[in-house]
Amino acid sequence: MEKIGKPAPSFRAPALVAGTLTYLDSTQFAGRWTAVCFLPYFGIVEPDFLDHQTNNFDRIDTTLLIVSSGTRPLHRMWLDRPTTPRTPLLYDPLGRLHRSFGVAVAQIPVRCQTFLIDRAGLLRFHLIHDFADRGLAAFQEILTMSQTQDSEVVTAKRSEYDANREAMTALSEVEACETRRL
Length: 182
Description:
- The protein is an alpha/beta fold.
- The protein has one domain (12-181): Glutaredoxin (3-Layer(aba) Sandwich), CATH 3.40.30.
- It has four helices and seven strands, in the order E-E-E-H-E-H-E-H-E-E-H.
- It has helices at residues 47-59, 74-79, 96-101, 133-181, and strands spanning 12-17, 20-25, 33-39, 62-68, 89-91, 112-117, 123-129.
- It has a seven-stranded mixed β-sheet with strand order 2-1-5-4-3-6-7.
- It is globular and about 60 Å long.
- The N and C termini lie far apart (62 Å).
- Residues 153-158 have low confidence and may be disordered.
């Protein structure tokens, strides 16, 4: 996908969060790893399954967002149920969020598409998978590797900065000694 490495699309969409209808904005997730999962047809997925997945993503410091592509209002299906998941469920009735990520709005059930957004707001990865433990576990493994790699880059940059700072300090001390001699 040509958008990998570029800033993630910004969005504002209606959502069901822990049983409450609200709007979610992409700026709410700034500075945090985020997985945006587009489901081809939402139907009713068991809240326990979604909460289990949310817990798995929470353990690796990542927010999981589920985006519904059905034309039937997602919120009505969930509000009629006795329990709702705590996973944020976004509703994209006009397909704007789908189009901004380059995901086709499917009428026939196909596989999920999940995008990884890093702390800097860049799209890091795109995976097409089944919405099952195995598909999401594969995504989480890739996510963990990306986070580790990101952490190593930050550590390397920090070490490089510290080395440069030490060199500058040593240089200024030498210059101070040279100035005193004159």
